[in-house]
Structures are given as structure tokens and as C-alpha cells.
Write a structure and sequence with these properties.
Layout lengths: L2 H37 L18 E5 L5 E2 L9 E5 L14 E3 L5 E3 H5 L4 E6 L4 H17 L4 E6 L8 H10 L7 E3 L4 H5 L4 E2 L1 E5 L5 E6 L4 H12 L1
Parallel strand pairs: 6-7, 7-8
Antiparallel strand pairs: 1-3, 2-9, 4-5, 6-10, 10-11
Length: 231
């Protein structure tokens, strides 16, 4: 075999060896990556068990379908948190956040309480769950209004809802008897952490925050809590 043919043959052999070696290395890398993936557990999402904090008087449960995010606020996952009044730390008695009557007169939360237990419901007409629970609230209001103060505080931001619109809606739906106020500066929403609507808070007669929850109320649970505060 002459020198030219021998050189050509050697080059061809080298190319075959190079291609074969590359293919083997690629297959080895693929097998290594597959083994690594199989050895790694899939990512998991930690979910707190319902009632896991029961010993501390706190129960947290998912309530995704029962809360509407308030305008300009950040949703907290729409969780409902109910706190046992006997386990709640003492809170400042002077709740100075200011809301307004339909005619524009200011009222502080402490004034609305009037030295009684206070139920605060932060709501809006554009919130379907707020509207849904109003008949229950009306019934509970009539049952407890002589012993408990109530404040139905509309989230009247002046854009999505105005004071006039909310007040008219209450009249049209036979709810004008409810003590309604308007949170035009978001002070009540900030005080009670109303990042979703509806939000309902209960304050004891001595100013402790007994509970605060986002989502539709459980009427019987609310009655049970109020009964412990008016005994």
C-alpha cells in the first residue's frame, strides 16, 4: 500500500474512533443524569394540618373560595384564622382607627364599641361573599344588638366603591338598619389586617382582639363566641 493510501486509511480510522468515543461519552453522561434525577426526591409542598395549633387556641384552615382580595391589597392565601378568646394575648384597648358615617362624621373603633364587645365586618358590595353573608349578619345583629356593638365597615375607596353607592345598596336590600360606616382611608382595614374581603373581627369589651377571619362567617361559631363574651 503506498504512503498516500496509508495516510488516508489512518485518518479514516481516527475519525471513526473519535465519533465512537464521543457517542459513548454522551450516552454515559445521559445515564449519569438520569440516575441523579431518579435519586433526587420530587419537590414537596408543606401543608399544615388543620388543627395542628389547637393546643395554642389557633385553628387555620384553607378557605380559597370564600374570600375576595380587596382592591390595592395583597392576598394572604385566603386563609381563615380563628383565635380562642381565652388564649389571645392582651391587645391595646384604644382602637383609634377612624371610619365615617354616611354623612361624613368621624367615629373611632373605640367609640363604636361603646364599652361592649364589638363585631367588625369589613365588606363591599362588589364582593359576592360579603353580600352572601349579610342575611346571617342581619339575623345575628338583631339577636345581640342590645349586648354587643356592631360595625359594618364598607371598603369605600372612592373608585371601586363610593359611600353613596354602598349606602344606597344597603337601603335597596333592606339592610339599612345595620350600623354602617365607611373606611375611606383604609384605617380599619389596616387595623384588622383586612387583606381579603369579607373580614370579620371580634373585639372584647376590654379591647382585646378576640378573633379575625377572612371569608364567610360560620353563624353558629360567631354566636358561640359572642355568648362567651356577654355572659
Amino acid at each position: 500500500m503506498d504512503k498516500g493510501k496509508r495516510n488516508t486509511l489512518m485518518i479514516a480510522i481516527a475519525l471513526v474512533a473519535l465519533i465512537g468515543g464521543g457517542a459513548f461519552a454522551y450516552q454515559t453522561l445521559q445515564r449519569t443524569q438520569a440516575a441523579s434525577t431518579a435519586a433526587s426526591p420530587p419537590p414537596t409542598t408543606e401543608t399544615a394540618a388543620v388543627g395542628s395549633d389547637a393546643a395554642n387556641g389557633i385553628v387555620t384552615e384553607s378557605n380559597d373560595t370564600n374570600a375576595t382580595t380587596a382592591p390595592g391589597a395583597t392576598s394572604t392565601g385566603n386563609a381563615t384564622t380563628t383565635t380562642n378568646p381565652t388564649e389571645t394575648a392582651e391587645q391595646p384597648a384604644n382602637h383609634g382607627a377612624t371610619v365615617y358615617t354616611e354623612s361624613g362624621e368621624p367615629r373611632t373603633i373605640a367609640e363604636l364599641a361603646n364599652s361592649k364587645p364589638l363585631v367588625v365586618n369589613i365588606w363591599a358590595t362588589w364582593c359576592p361573599y360579603c353580600v352572601e353573608e349579610m342575611p346571617d349578619f342581619k339575623e345575628i345583629y338583631n339577636e345581640y344588638k342590645d349586648r354587643v356593638s356592631f360595625a359594618f365597615i364598607d371598603s369605600a375607596d372612592g373608585q371601586r366603591e363610593t359611600v353613596e353607592e354602598a349606602a344606597e345598596w344597603l337601603r335597596e336590600n333592606d339592610l339599612a338598619e345595620l350600623p354602617a360606616y365607611y373606611d375611606t382611608n383604609d384605617e380599619a382595614a389596616m387595623l384588622f389586617g383586612a387583606y381579603s374581603l369579607p373580614t370579620t373581627a371580634i373585639v372584647s369589651a376590654d379591647g382585646r382582639l378576640v378573633s379575625s377571619s377572612a371569608g364567610i362567617i360560620d353563624p353558629e361559631q360567631l354566636r358561640a363566641t359572642l355568648d362567651t363574651l356577654v355572659q
